[in-house]
């Protein structure tokens, strides 16, 4: 056991923090990967014992639980152990279960960090980002930036990371800000996630994204109005393997070029105002095996625009035919 490098507890087992700490202390010279569901103590976690017991971990994936005064055990979201690990365990590369490019540790306050960190995933609030960030987190590959307010902020420090390949921008307030991130990181990105709120009026073109990010494999879009869906060519999507796209509500969209991307494996689309004729064309292409050649997952939430002579039955039939022909590829 003294040479054990990876330790994972079962999904249905919850271990107390103190027991886990003692186990890891005995294995601290070899253990670098730990996964567990943890019952936290109600009193504060000792920072020195945390660092001593888990000091050599590179991957620490866990769920936090705590028993309340009513005796009920509840799962915590970004609880105290998560925050302490991010701030105190400088050798950690992955903390919690934040490895999918969609979720991240709590936003960092650099005043509480203990020197340079090996953390590869970082979440920051743009308004409070410190110029120290690129120096403290030099190995970051997955970066999430959140804007709480709507005003432009100074983002110079957030453009100084060297190895970002996954970029998540939440609630950014202007295209100028987005352009700065795409100019700095676009060429090295394989995953990009852009999310804005329902009140946002920002517009974007697929062509802009793919010109800035020629190696993009995963693209997640939520709330933006994509304005070139009817003119973008299928060649623009040649590297894309996964797309999650939720068009701004009420805005017209075309899905044919998107669904025709040659390497797409996973597709989640939520759009409205799509023409029935376009659904019929997509279904025909699918039946002839001209699209969906590599498809594994397809989720469609589509609202069709009103057309003269089109009935509800026509719409239902078009959606059913498209789903049937797509399924023929997905079930391989």
Indicate the topology.
Blueprint: E1 6-8, E2 14-16, H1 17-26, E3 33-39, H2 47-53, E4 59-67, E5 73-76, H3 80-88, E6 94-95, E7 121-125, H4 133-136, E8 142-146, E9 166-170, H5 175-185, E10 191-195, E11 203-204, H6 206-212, E12 218-222, E13 225-226, E14 242-246, H7 256-259, E15 266-274, H8 276-287, E16 297-304, H9 312-330
Parallel strand pairs: 1-3, 2-3, 3-4, 4-6, 7-8, 8-9, 9-10, 10-12, 11-13, 12-14, 14-15, 15-16
Antiparallel strand pairs: 4-5
From the spread of the alpha carbons, the general shape counts as: globular
- Taken together, the total number of domains comes to 2
Question: What fraction of residues sit in β-strands?
Answer: 15-25%
- State the end-to-end CA separation: 43 Å
Give the helices and strands as they follow along the chain. Answer: EEHEHEEHEEHEEHEEHEEEHEHEH
CATH C-level class of the largest domain is: Alpha Beta
State the helical fraction.
25-40%
Q: Compute the gyration radius: what is it?
A: 23 Å
Largest sheet: 8 strands, parallel
CATH fold-level label of the largest domain = Leucine-rich repeat, LRR (right-handed beta-alpha superhelix)
The main sheet orders its strands as 7-8-9-10-12-14-15-16
Q: Do you know the CATH architecture of the largest domain?
A: Alpha-Beta Horseshoe
Average pLDDT metric: 84
What is the number of helical segments per DSSP (H or I, 4+ residues)?
Answer: 9
Spans of 5+ residues with little confidence (pLDDT < 50)? 98-103
Helix-and-strand structural type: alpha/beta
Number of strands: 16
